Amino acid sequence: MSKYKSYSSYGNSSWWMSDWDTNDYTISYSPKQEKSKNLYKMAAHRRAIANFVSIVTGKNIPVKFNTKGNSYTDGTTVVISSKVAEPNEFDPAVGLALHEGSHIKLSNFKLLADMYKSIQKVVGPAKLKEWQETANKKNIDDIIYTIKDILNWVEDRRIDQFIFDAAPGYRDYYRSMYDKYFNDPAIDKGMQSDELKTETMDSYMFRLINLHSKFSKANALKGLNEITKIAKLSDINRLKTTDDALVVACDIFEVILNNIDAEAQKAENKANGKKQKGNGNGQGQAQQAGEGEEEAGEDDIEVEMGDSGSEGMGDDGEDFDEAGDNGVAEEGKGVVGKIKAVLGGKGNGKPAAGKLSQRQMEILKKKIEKQKEFLRGEVKKGSVSSSENKSLDTIDQSGTELKTVGQELANGVVITKGIECIVVKKMNQSLLESADFPLADLRYNAKDGEHQNSVQCASEVAEGIRIGMVLGKKLQVRSESRETIFNRQLVGRMDKRMISSLGFGNEHVFFTKEIDAYKKANLHISVDASGSMSGTKWRKTMTNVVALAKAVSMIPNLEIQISFRTTSGELPYIVIAYDSRVDKFIKVKTLFQYLRPGGTTPEGLAFEGVMKQMVGSTTDVESYFLNISDGEPYFHGKGYNYQGYYASKHTKKMVDKIEAMGIKVMSYFVNEYSGDVDATSGSGKVFKDCYGKAAHYINVTNVNEVVRTMNKLFMNKPAGIE
Fold this sequence. Notes:
Elements: E1 3-4, E2 25-26, H1 31-57, E3 63-65, E4 78-80, H2 90-106, H3 109-113, H4 115-123, H5 125-134, H6 140-166, H7 171-181, H8 185-192, H9 201-209, H10 224-231, H11 242-259, H12 262-279, H13 299-305, H14 334-343, H15 358-375, H16 386-397, E5 401-405, E6 419-424, H17 429-432, E7 442-445, E8 450-453, H18 458-475, E9 481-489, E10 493-494, E11 510-517, E12 520-528, H19 536-553, E13 558-568, E14 571-579, H20 586-591, H21 603-610, E15 621-629, E16 635-637, E17 640-642, H22 644-660, E18 663-671, H23 682-691, E19 695-699, H24 704-714, E20 719-721
Parallel strand pairs: 1-2, 3-4, 6-14, 12-13, 12-15, 15-18, 18-19
Antiparallel strand pairs: 5-6, 7-8, 9-11, 10-11, 11-20, 13-14, 16-17
């Protein structure tokens, strides 16, 4: 049995637990933490799918998660399932999203909105009346409904082939989609059987929908060969519009209508009527799955059959037909054996040759209904709650993404395949108020029944603004420049006033210009927001980072980013709380007072996660990276142990990479106690190992030294010559 060691994230030290025994160490995380991680993955998947749809369609089509009931394409929005983050669900979800997106791009939704008028336009009123008489005065709505189903099938083939040809790089996603919804072993079995070979509407729709199957036979039904020629799937690109597809659909319907066996159709209608009465679900009435609910009546089928062709096959690659002529498998052979037993009709007796057992037919009908639901845009998709949907929107607005880090660590020692780091590119009000945000203390206000963030350091923020204004006024000279021109030079730029003297042998007709000015500068402050930073250290640090942010806001050639790093559940977490390039300073004034520390110190993992957001030095920009911390790198995640020598080594490697970008690194060890920090042992030495010459040690009461240091750096003024 695994050993569990539990601790609260709030107030944890980053270093005092470094001597813990980590052998057979496991941390259990709450369902809330697991759910939060899943939301980050869902948001990342949604963002990726939206990009795919945009690239393929050339349109900025919104992609949303299903929130209730069945998903659909309404001509403006692509709706995806909440199950997209589950294993093996992403690829078919992309294929389905591309399919729905291509409908938006290529399909005529106005035509679909009024099918009666659209069909009448194609065939004329007389033909519609004739069809009604042929169908024994069948309700015109039934005829319209059937033609619409046929049109859906033709239109799907048209738009899918268009995208398949136009974007070959996305073909695998389409293949995954077809594997999930069409290439099913039960369907294959049905296509090879003697079932659904009577000339009824159900038989024709089954054979039509699966016309692309390798088991399709043109002589399975009367007129099916003619239908095959009308559809002409090999040249489906000849259909340029939904209107073209409707013409084909009407032609196919007429062939079906002319070949229907009237008596067999009556029997089928009677059987379908009884079935609808029994289950309360008529054709095309997809069951409504509410928030958090599963599809009713499917559990027994799906467990035995799987959701798709790939899921309906076992790990050994066997398929249904390998069970023998009767389809009956031996017991005790896992999922494959169960599936074979079901298809073989075990318990129902041996079916006649070419026939399916009663149980097989039940499963086949379920699969056919799923195909029809797909054609109608009624694919059942997992839904998200309103609160989850709000969290997903918040994640998107904040630019949150999961970035794999730590892959450079030694295998078998710390992290083998890396770990996902939560990188938040933009902190905002919604994120601060989110229950998933680890750096705000959410309190419940019983009076108004709402959650509110408790103020942590309002006075410290106010003091930081005051100090920053003083510093900003001192730094305003950075925006000044002075030019000195040197005339009568042998080289340089031509002085037009001296051109006339060239005829008299004067060669000193050039000038140079020396510009005495400050270069642009960028400062990235990374603050350790672990629990051990609580109290005085946090308050003093907040005063200083606010002061620097305020000062920089007053200077046109200075920019600043402020990030905080901690942990969220089992993952490293880093958030860019302020970026002067895109944010106004009011954000610091209003939001920073609610921030508080908690969690542990993923140090180098967080640096790696946010490194792409840093600004490297150039000939025009001097960049600085300022780190404020109070301890060693320390982090435990699910299956990960980030501490000691290897964590320090990894952090040092990340610091080296930052310096390789031309960024000057300064790192301050904030000591809570009086006296100097020992840099030769303990946490002081680890800090030195991580940051090398960039390591500085300060007492919490002298955190203002950070501001003074940056003041000196900002006032450094190299000269440029033009």
